[in-house]
Design goal:
Helix content: 10-25%
CATH topology of the largest domain: Leucine-rich repeat, LRR (right-handed beta-alpha superhelix)
Number of helices: 3
Number of strands: 9
CATH architecture of the largest domain: Alpha-Beta Horseshoe
Strand order of the largest sheet: 1-2-4-6-7-8-9
Order of helices and strands: HHEEEEEEEEHE
Structural class: alpha/beta
Shape: globular
Bound molecules: 2-acetamido-2-deoxy-beta-D-glucopyranose
Radius of gyration: 24 Å
CATH superfamily of the largest domain: Ribonuclease Inhibitor
């Protein structure tokens, strides 16, 4: 009797062990974190922004747990789908020209990115073209842009926020199928030609263009 009870316990114990083992395999098979390429890509971005975010650390394998990042399950793998790098560049003393260009190729490993917030970073533009086939929303508000950057590499883009820059040149908005466009606070008097880029955007549902130097003449010929 005693022997068989012990035997039974033994069997249950083994089964539980196996189950835990199976569970373990299942979880690791489903990839707990982001991909290695994404993790390295994020560390390169961190270096470009020179910011000491302690949660972004090479030793923390699962970058989905890092701050300002959101991952989603894409084809059974956790991938980085949101990245908030707003107000991230380290503060420069006011007497230095703080504006800088970001190497857009640094985003290439994050090719499932849907939402990217780069607002409030003193960005004057990009070197190389942003290429993110799934990006839907891009926030570039509060930077130092004089022209809309080349957005040709963002075929899924529907929302762009460009408020509080120094935009003079809207040409790269031409032909985009945007739904949301925020151009407020650029203190510009955009020419009729540039405004016609906006009027021609039939997909547009939301436009913010306040705090610019516009008057009723923008409606001429409308
Ligand atoms: C960035 O924006 C998010 C909201 O979109 C906000 O919760 C967060 O605090 C901001 N981060 C910084 C550093 O300002
Ligand atoms: C931009 O980033 C890419 C990818 O990391 C790199 O290969 C390239 O050398 C960088 N270009 C510049 C000008 O730093
Ligand atoms: C874009 O960034 C600005 C400045 O950080 C912020 O106020 C605004 O809420 C952001 N917009 C979206 C849609 O996240
Ligand atoms: C806007 O559309 C009109 C009429 O189709 C066209 O003549 C004009 O060139 C377009 N403007 C821009 C900036 O695409
Ligand atoms: C309205 O704006 C246009 C274009 O900037 C300018 O030429 C014109 O003088 C302005 N009209 C008034 C009444 O301010």
């Amino acid at each position: 009797m005693k022997l068989s009870l012990l035997h039974l316990l033994c069997v249950v114990w083994t089964m539980m062990g196996t189950m835990i083992l199976l569970l373990d395999c299942e979880l690791s098979g489903r990839a707990l974190g982001c991909t290695e390429d994404e993790r390295i890509g994020l560390l390169n971005l961190k270096a470009a922004f020179k910011f000491p975010n302690p949660s972004w650390h090479a030793d923390h394998q699962d970058c989905c747990r890092w701050k300002e990042i959101k991952c989603s399950n894409v084809a059974n793998t956790m991938r980085v789908t949101e990245l908030h790098l707003n107000d991230t560049i380290e503060q420069m003393p006011f007497y230095l020209d703080a504006s800088w260009s970001l190497n857009a190729s640094l985003f290439l490993p994050l090719d499932e990115l849907q939402v990217l917030d780069l607002s409030l970073n003193g960005l004057a533009g990009f070197t190389n073209t942003l290429r993110l086939k799934n990006l839907r929303s891009l926030n570039l508000s509060g930077n130092d842009l004089k022209q809309v950057p080349n957005l040709d590499g963002l075929p899924s883009l529907t929302k762009i926020f460009l408020s509080f820059n120094r935009l003079e040149d809207l040409n790269h908005l031409k032909g985009l199928k945007l739904e949301t466009l925020d151009l407020s606070g650029n203190y510009q008097s955009f020419s009729q030609d540039e405004l016609s880029i906006i009027w021609n955007m039939t997909s547009l549902k939301y436009l913010s263009i306040n705090w610019n130097e516009l008057n009723d003449s923008i409606f001429e010929g409308k």
